[in-house]
Design goal:
The protein is of the alpha/beta class and 379 residues long. The chain contains 15 helices and 13 strands. The protein folds into two domains: 196 residues, 3-Layer(aba) Sandwich (Rossmann fold), CATH 3.40.50.2000; 167 residues, 3-Layer(aba) Sandwich (Rossmann fold), CATH 3.40.50. It has a seven-stranded parallel β-sheet, with helices on both faces. The radius of gyration is 22 Å and the shape is elongated. The site of ligand GMT has 21 residues, from helix 1 and helix 4.
Length: 379
């Protein structure tokens, strides 16, 4: 199949999922055309079956706000037409689904019928989508898509709760290529960040409010009072200055490593003992799955789709949002005993295998085939 994938190219989970999906489809022989405004962070270099089409955003002085959606729709029309695409798969409802609808209508006037699938990732529904100013467009796009998928059961329920739609939403969970077995930690690498007797906790995110990174720091403060430990904070975003100030005021700055934005999470996770994800809301929690796939147990909140990913008492522990005391106790429980930590590490990996790429990829492929066939029948 020839598939156009529209995504946000930045550090968000939706962009990561879309890029990894495209790369995996390309390996299976599909022709993948990424369409977005800058090179997706996980795309890497030139590879077989992968093409990247950049949407040029104009800076005409009349526009106080650039008409990105219009430029995106025009680029989609162009790519569908000249690359003979069979399907568009857009990740994140706004403005990707509305631009896809526009492209579909334009192409129809030119005798080309192209279906589009919308994948809902979370904040398009749970945060941004709830803003009443977006509601009519998102509802329309959900109803107009040729198929809609959501990354968790929780997100599917949220979508029905907040939008006037009764159309079918397929739950296709995010996926990962987990390692087969646990490998010993590279001590040389680990020693750059912690001494051998210290545990390494970590958190990786875009440091937006919804991630509650201040809870990460408070949990770490409590843990390091009981267990020698270091905290690696990967990523960057609006809350970072607050978090840095907190760490300074608590006097634990020398135990926290701020890496800034990271393209690959693997190098941090490979040396970590525990991942913290205390988010306010999370439709899935891809960062938790990435940690588990490296054999790193997860202490998280129990919000949104996280309970579908992190299994309480098995791959880690879950607590109510904001209950930093419970999260600290869970972290200390896992980290205070070598044998227990080893068991949680193995269980985290077992849990990650439930989201294996080889299981999830055929689900997308069969949905693609179904949607393309339905379009042919209608036409
Ligand atoms: O979490 C973010 O801030 C980024 C956001 C995105 O749209 O890129 O992530 C959402 O999609 C991810 C991939 O499906 C999910 O794993 C995240 O849970 C979801 N974030 C939220 O729901 C807050």
């Amino acid at each position: 199949m020839k598939i156009g994938i529209v995504l946000y190219p930045t550090f968000g989970g939706s962009g990561v999922v879309a890029t990894e999906l495209g790369k995996a489809l390309a390996l299976k022989g599909h022709q993948i055309h990424f369409i977005t405004y800058s090179q997706p962070v996980r795309l890497g270099s030139f590879r077989e079956n992968i093409y990247y089409h950049e949407v040029a955003v104009s800076d005409y002085p009349l526009f106080e706000y650039q008409p990105y959606e219009t430029e995106l729709a025009s680029k989609m029309v162009d790519v569908v037409k000249y690359e003979n695409l069979d399907l568009l798969h857009v990740h994140y409802a706004i403005p990707h689904a509305s631009a896809a609808f526009m492209a579909q209508q334009i192409l129809r006037t030119q005798g080309i019928d192209i279906p589009f699938i919308t994948t809902l990732h979370g904040t398009d529904i749970t945060l941004v989508g709830k803003d009443p100013s977006f509601e009519p467009v998102i509802t329309f796009c959900i109803n107009a898509s040729n198929a809609v998928t959501a990354v968790s059961e929780s997100l599917r329920k949220d979508t029905y709760a907040h939008f006037a739609t009764d159309r079918e939403i397929h739950v296709i969970p995010n996926f990962i290529q987990a390692k087969e077995t646990l490998k010993p930690i590279d001590l040389e690498k680990r020693r750059h960040y912690a001494q051998d007797h210290e545990r390494i906790l970590c958190h990786i995110s875009n440091f937006r409010k919804v991630k509650r990174v201040e809870d990460v720091v408070e949990i770490f403060r409590q843990v390091q009072e009981r267990i020698p430990a270091k905290l690696i904070l990967g990523g960057d975003g609006p809350e970072r200055p607050l978090v840095e100030r907190m760490a300074r005021e608590m006097g634990i700055c020398n135990k926290i490593i701020f890496t800034g934005k990271v393209r690959e999470t693997g190098p941090i996770l490979e040396i970590a003992d525990l991942f913290l994800l205390p988010s306010e809301t999370e439709s899935f929690g891809l960062a938790a799955l990435e940690a588990m796939a490296e054999g790193v147990p997860v202490v998280s909140s129990n919000t949104g789709g996280i309970p579908e990913v992190n299994r309480h008492g098995f791959s880690g522990y879950l607590s109510n949002v904001g209950d930093v005391d419970a999260m600290s106790k869970h972290a200390i429980h896992i980290l205070s005993d070598d044998e227990r930590l080893k068991a949680f590490r193995e269980q985290a990996l077992v849990q990650a295998h439930k989201f294996s790429l080889k299981e999830v990829l055929p689900i997308y492929e069969s949905l693609y085939a179904q949607v393309i066939n339905e379009m042919r029948v209608v036409v």
